[in-house]
Amino acid sequence: MNIFRLTGDLTHLMSIIVLLLKIHTIKSCAGISLKTQELYALVFATRYLDIFTTYISLYNTVMKLIFLGTSFSIVWYMRRHKTVRLSYDKNNDTFRHYFLVLPCFLLALVLNNRFTVREVLWTFSLYLEAVAIIPQLVLLQRSKNVDNLTGNYVFFLGAYRGFYLINWIYRYFTENHYRRWITWMAGIVQTALYVDFFYYYFKSWKNNEKLKLPA
Amino acid sequence: VEENDTKDEL
User: Fold this and answer.
1) Which PANTHER family match (chain A) (predicted)?
2) What is the C-alpha separation between A6 and A15, in angstroms, rounded?
């Protein structure tokens, strides 16, 4: 475990905390894409299939349980909670799941390290995580003003990606570890998706303005 | 060659 990986995990955790804060205290999920949240729940469900069979560390197990539990509870809140679901911006959150899920699954069937159920699903989760933010970014573009918590939520998610990529580069040079090029590609695509958002995030921060993404 | 895509990450 290096500092980049740990910082990445913590910013990932922060993004979830920010989102839960919004849902629990303000009882609002305005500006949050249910599509993206459902995709993340699917990402964690397919990636952590080995959670009870392969033990890595207590840290890993606990974090996996947190990511699984929070992602499914967020989906539950947005769909079922009597107040929270009313704030869901359904009309603007129109991106279709299967445009992302289907290509990712087909790609995982073709490009994987081993053709086994678990390996294919693990690869699928990587591909899907890379693009799962897209419905959220589309929704941000359609929103007139992005509130602080939503902006910070996406910021922390992007930061998590950035730190993970640095961690990969670090591990590449310091450990006897390598990754398949498909893993690198998925990781780079995922991080690159945030570049545009970061530009406008810092711009609004610098100018002390409300965050707004050009359509 | 053993496959190596790290699964110790989250």
Assistant:
1) ER LUMEN PROTEIN RETAINING RECEPTOR
2) 14
